[in-house]
From TrEMBL:
Region entry Disordered, spans: 42-67
Keyword Ligase: yes
Family affiliation: Belongs to the class-I aminoacyl-tRNA synthetase family. Glutamate--tRNA ligase type 1 subfamily.
Coiled-coil stretches: none
Organism: Geodia barretti
Aminoacyl-tRNA synthetase class I anticodon-binding domain mapped to chain residues: 252-393
GO biological process, one term: glutamyl-tRNA aminoacylation
Domain Glutamyl/glutaminyl-tRNA synthetase class Ib catalytic: 3-237
Protein name (database record): Glutamate--tRNA ligase
Gene Ontology cellular component list: cytosol
Record GO terms (molecular function): ATP binding; glutamate-tRNA ligase activity; tRNA binding
Listed Gene3D superfamilies: 1.10.10.350, Glutamate-tRNA synthetase, class I, anticodon-binding domain 1, HUPs
Record keywords: Aminoacyl-tRNA synthetase, ATP-binding, Ligase, Nucleotide-binding, Protein biosynthesis
Domain of life: Eukaryota
Amino acid sequence: MKAPYFQSQRTALYEEAGERLLSQGKAYRCYCTPEELQAKRETAQAEGRQPAYDGTCRDYTPEPGDTRPFTVRFKSPKEGETSIDDLIKGRVVFQNQELDDLILVRSDGSPTYNFCSVFDDADLRISHVVRGDDHLSNTPRQVLIFQALDATPPAFAHLPLILGPDRVRLSKRHGATSVTAYREMGYLPDALVNFIARLGWSHGDEEIFSRAELIQKFHLADVGKSAGVFNAEKLEWLNFQYQQAREPAHITQEVKPFLTDKGYSLPDDVQLSRMLKTLQPRAKTLVELAAASHFYLTETVTFEEKAAKKFLTQDGLTIVEKVRGKLKTAPDWTEEALHAVFTSLMEELELKLGKIAQPIRVALTGGTASPGIFEVMEVLGKEQTLARLDTALTTVRDGNTNVSA
C-alpha cells in the first residue's frame, strides 16, 4: 500500500492484528453490556474510586457458538511498572495496576484510536511521536500495545500545552486557534511558524528565525517542560518585523487577496507595489495593510468628519486652491520637486508646513493620518492628485461633502 494512508483502507490489517493478540492471550473478548459497564462506573464513583473496567471478562472463556456482541480488550499487566524516557519530560513511570484493560476493537468491529495509532506507527516504522502532553496518559497503554505486537516503541516527546493569557489551556474563548484563522487575520506564515516555535523553546536571546535557521537550531532537548503562554501582542510584533523585512514584490502578492475581497479594482503590480511601500512601515498585518490602502484605491474619497471640520474650512480650502494652482504648473512630479513647491508656498503665505500639508492630506486621503504627503502625491500621480483636490474644493463648497463619522 502506497501513501497517503487512510485508516479506513487498513481495516483488514487491524482485524488481523486483533485476532493475533486474541490467539496469543494478550487480549480477550468482553461481553459486558453498556448497561453493565454504566453500573460499574456508577458504583466506582459512589465509592470514590476512579472509574475503570474491573476485568469481569478477563479470564472468562466463552461457550462455543456464543453469539453475544463483544468488544476486544487489551490484557494489561497488573504488576510492575511501565516507564517512558520522554525526550522533553525525562523518565516518567506509571504503575501497571493503575492501567485498566482498554478496548482495542468495538462491538461493531471498528478499531479504537489507541489500537490504530499504535499499529500504524509500528507498521510504518515511525521513529518519533511528538505531541501535546495531554496525550501523556495514553502513552503507557500504547507502549504496552507496542510490546504486545512485538514492536519497538518510537521515541516520545510530549510538548507542553499552549495556555491563554489567563494561564488556562488555549481555546476558542481566547480567540482564534486555527492556522487558517490567523492567515485570514493577515499574519504571515513564516511569522506564525517562528512564533509557535518559540513557545516553550529558546535559543539564547534570539527572537527571529528563518525556517532554515529553525531547522538547524531546533532541538527537542531544548524545549522547556512548562506550558507556554500565547501572547497575541508578541505575535503582532513578530509579524510586524517579518512584514517590514518583506520584499515589496512579495508583499504585493500576499496582500492582493485581502484587497480583492474588499472589491477594489487593482492597478498593475508595479503601481500597487509603490502604494504599499508607503504604507508598509505602519501596518502590523496584511489586514491592516489592506485597510490602509483604501484611500489609494477608492474611487471617491470619504472625509473623516473631525478632519474635514478642522482642515477643510474656508481658510483650508483657500490653501488647497493655492496648492492646486502651483501643482498644475509643476514641471516635475517627484518628492523633491513637490517639497520645493510647498517650500515656496510656505514662504509666500508665511505658514509652517503643517498648516499647508494637513488640508492637502485631508483632501487627498480623507483623514489626517497617512504616509508622508509628498510620497502620497508622487504615488497618486499628477492627474489624480489634481482631480482629488478639485473634488474636495467642489464638494465642500457645494455642501455635498462625503463625510464619515
